[in-house]
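Quick one, T. Sequence first:
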Amino acid sequence: MRKLLMGMLALATITLSCSRSIVGNTNQDPHHEHWHNMNSTYTFMSISTAKPGKLNDLVRIASEPSELMDKHVAGLLARQVRVDTARNSVVVWVAFDSKETLYNYLATEQGQNEHGDQAEMDSIIETFTMYDLSPKSQRLLPKQ
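Structure tokens:
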């Protein structure tokens, strides 16, 4: 499990770096103003396994919250949802400027509405493990 976690974090960082390099013209990036001052002090991560035949549903419900937050939570700095088909699992990785950014948003009516329906989650998710992570080493920007 530790190797999977470390591998997913490394992959997330590499993919984010590559995608930022491809963007090139940061004037077209709606979150550009946050990139030059970015300092992630909190990362939410979860690993979920789907009930039999429910992997596609798990991908959908795991992706929606961070996709919705990305539209209006300025402190959301980076996000990824990755699928491990062989393990019937989904890994969610979302970096924030602070833990308060996420928890303050989840305390709002909008945050609660966009987080998902508990009954639906219970019908799809077999196991769920959540991590509240503080950085010890990081690079979210492309190498210069």
